[in-house]
Amino acid sequence: MLPGYWQRTFELGPDPDGEGELVATLVSRGHPDEDAAHRARDAVLVVHGFTDYFFHTELADHLASQGFRVYALDLHKCGRSHRDGQTPHFTTDLARYDVELERALATVAAVSRARVLIYGHSAGGLITSLWLDRLRRSGGTARAGVAGLVLNSPWLDLQGHALLRSAPTSAALSALGRLRKHTVVRRPGTGGYGTTLHRDYDGDFDYNLTWKPIGGFPVKVGWIHAIRRGQARLHRGLDVGVPNLILRSDRSVREVADPAAIQRGDAVLDVTQIARWAGCIGNRTTIVPITDAKHDVFLSVPEARRQAYTELDRWLQWYRTEHRGECTAPADNDGSDGHG
């Protein structure tokens, strides 16, 4: 476990995709029984993307310096939540993450009456946006204690040639997803984006290479079909019910083996697609391109990273002013549906 961090495991029951018992892991910066947890008026719940898990203590420290109690969720089959015999990150329905996201919210509410800001990166940005739209329609984000959303390079459409997004391709993907969901459609690479991040290669960060391998995990057809269904739902228009900030790079770069060639741009997603579909998140969206940022803007080269933090802080100042004087989240759920 990261020094100075605490974690709690949620047992989620049998995997509908037949890979054993599922768990999710909620990580907290500092122990939840500390007095500061009860004084905090704001909390943030961080949700990672594909081939990822929570490790970014620099981001957590920055959010804490802004007065936020920091939590992060390793989704089922990801990072700390992966179990033997499970396919990392594999699911055939993104809505299955709702249960663990709502348990995380309940745990935060049990610790303090803080407003909760949701943060999602890449696939986590898609997952959290879809979840908040469902949450709003089923009872309201405010009632659940959620007051805002920050998206870091959210995965809003499938990158690559337009043929990959065509109706015939989608139909074929749907059929294959039902019949052969574990068919691999993209194998792990030999480097690329991952080599710009990790200290053992050309990056500034340290993390577990088993949980976040340099070349990524295999992409399977059942999972990509779930992503495409989620993106299609987003394209019809969501309303997450809260103000939201979208940070992205100002450019995409082609992923190549040479890390020096992809240090200053998004080597994973097409940023024009993020710009195109960002308006489908909700009605109060702020979109900020970060010059020379990588796919994860907070793992960028130092000058781009500083700009990303500056833009985040500017929006957070507005966010806290906007919610000044409002009641914080209700504490009527003791979070006892998880297990330590």
From TrEMBL:
Instruction: State the InterPro entries in the record.
Output: AB_hydrolase_fold, Hydrolase_4, MAG_DAG_Lipase
Annotated GO molecular function terms are: hydrolase activity
**What is one Pfam family matched by this protein?**
Hydrolase_4
Q: Does the record bear Hydrolase in its keywords?
A: yes
Q: Does this entry carry the keyword Hydrolase?
A: yes
Superkingdom field: Bacteria
Serine aminopeptidase S33 domain location, by residue?
40-246
Q: Gene3D superfamilies from the entry?
A: alpha/beta hydrolase
PANTHER family to which the protein is assigned, alphabetical: PHOSPHOLIPASE-RELATED
Name by which UniProt lists this protein: Alpha/beta hydrolase
